[in-house]
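From the shared-data thread, chain only:
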Amino acid sequence: MQVSSVNDVKIYNLSYGKSLPEWLSDRKKRQLQKKDVEIQRRIELIQDFEMPTVCTSIKVSRDGQFILAAGTYKPRIRCYDTYQLSLKFERCLDSDVVAFDILSDDYSKLVFLHCDRHVEFHSQHGHYYKTRIPKFGRDFSYHYPSCDLYFVGASSEVFRLNLEQGRFLNSLQTDAVENNVCDINPIHHLFATGSSEGRVECWDPRVRNRVGKLDCALSSLAEGTEVQALPSISALKFNSSLTVAVGTTTGQVLLYDLRSSQPLLVKDHLYNLPINSLNFHNQLDLVVSSDSKIIKIWNKDTGKLFSSIQPQTNINGVCVYPNSGMLFTANEDPKMNTFYIPALGPAPRWCSFLDNLTEELEENPESTVYDDYKFVTRKDLENLGLTHLIGSSLLRAYMHGFFMDIRLYHKVKGMVNPFAYEEYRKDKIRQKIEEARTQRVQVKKLPKVNKELALKLMEEGDDEAEVVSRKKKGKALPSILGDDRFKVMFENSDYQVDEQSEEFRLLNPIVSKVGQKRKKKLRLAERMDNDEEPEGRASSEEESSDDDKSWVEEVREKDADRNTVLPQFYQIKAGEEFRSFNDMAHKQKLQKTSLEERLKLEEHSETSGTADTAVGSKQLTFTLKKSEQQKKQQQAEREHHEERKKLRRSAGHLSSIRGRGRGWGGRGRGRH
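Structure, as tokens:
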């Protein structure tokens, strides 16, 4: 389904998308539906709603249940049942259909006018009768009160065929050389014909006399219009009792009041193509007119455009479903288009689900993106030398410019400017270089003390600021570096973090890869600071110094990788007493003893013990005194255990009678 909007009016093309070939098996169709996204998104409102090659005309029965379409090749008529949403029957014909009409409320009575002068009648079961008219016909109308068929064509006469008597009646003689179209007013049954000379003649079927004539050719021409040929009448349609719409071969639609010879309104399609279809939408006082390129919907009183539809293929005819916003089009294409416009009216009863579908789509609007088209102005066309394509199918007019195929645009632009690709390539390379520059290490000015900690806080602060900005729009909290309370930590050397101390190793037992990267970045930043070139220094000295420094760095990294144990020196602070390393040896002995012995030693030593390490840290062990209640409870438990030991009896005497067997007592079995 394709959604478009013209003049803020939503138009839903229900036939948009790929159609599957008839010769494919059901299994293959299911596989394609699973793989192809376009086939999955299509809506098949009526099954097999298409023709083999071309559809020439389409109509709806008066009861609204059946849709009949005529097409080729081979010439055929297809009837679709809207209640079943599928094809009801198909009948092949001997020649192409010029026009057809439905005489009954359903499909039981049909009349076909063929291109070979034959008139064919069909009943519910199929072909019923065929006759022939004297001249080639172009259109016909049915007069219900008298059961007469009026045929117009390549003749000045209007042939009458009475279906009640089954014979031809006297013809009506017009002043025209040829008549193209005809229509009968549904209220007072006035019969009108449109001639190739641009005139409309009106006849009264009761007396078979002409009652009026309209000259539409001169009225359709505006001031300053270049006339290449005399406008002929190509479409004719009555509305109510006094209004008639006339379409010309030059693309104008004229609205007349039967009481006046001057048109009430002239609407130009601006395509200079013959008008092939006219319909009225009485609920909103609109006129639906079409030529082979576009369908225009406009107000019949003011002529203001309501909306327009421009299919991809040429249009042969338009049919408006009664009392709804749905239209069907017969195209120069196998697929017959179905358009639904909610602004015109609700969906028909047999497809009422379309209203819910369109309401859901309107609740979640999506922006329309033209991926395959390029918007160009008239100035762009002049620069490309494509002004001669204006008016052709390669350019589609839109607002102040045109849409054209993006492939054609690239091809023409490559021919006009052959070095455009080189310029594009250089721009891309320049963008890549700029991106690489931004990704380089950009270290901010670090303090003299705790450089690595400052670098870590900078990275964490940037990450937190990004998270806060994503979650909510607000200002990030100030970092430690910017807080005056922690300012001394990065200025006074007494606050320097010793990463070689035992406390630091206990708090950070594992050196993460992030920390290693941070150290590497810090060394790189120090190199950049040290490599600042003084004024007047030769470039050769710079290169030699860079080589020396890089060699020194490699040596340092190799030394760091070796597992060498270096001696460490510690400073004894003022007020501390130096002790020997015997305490460390005693500590190692205690670690080799069992846990039980260590606990006993701690219980016996009721005083707090102190131990000095080589680093100067202290370790304290505390033994808490027990309360009187705890002591009494422990004493009571000891007395209870002693009492139980005294009352315990030995079970050794039971082993002496174990081998006597089951049921034997001390004196033998059965003795008293």
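Confidence is low (pLDDT under 50) at residues 532-545, 562-567, 611-615, 665-672.
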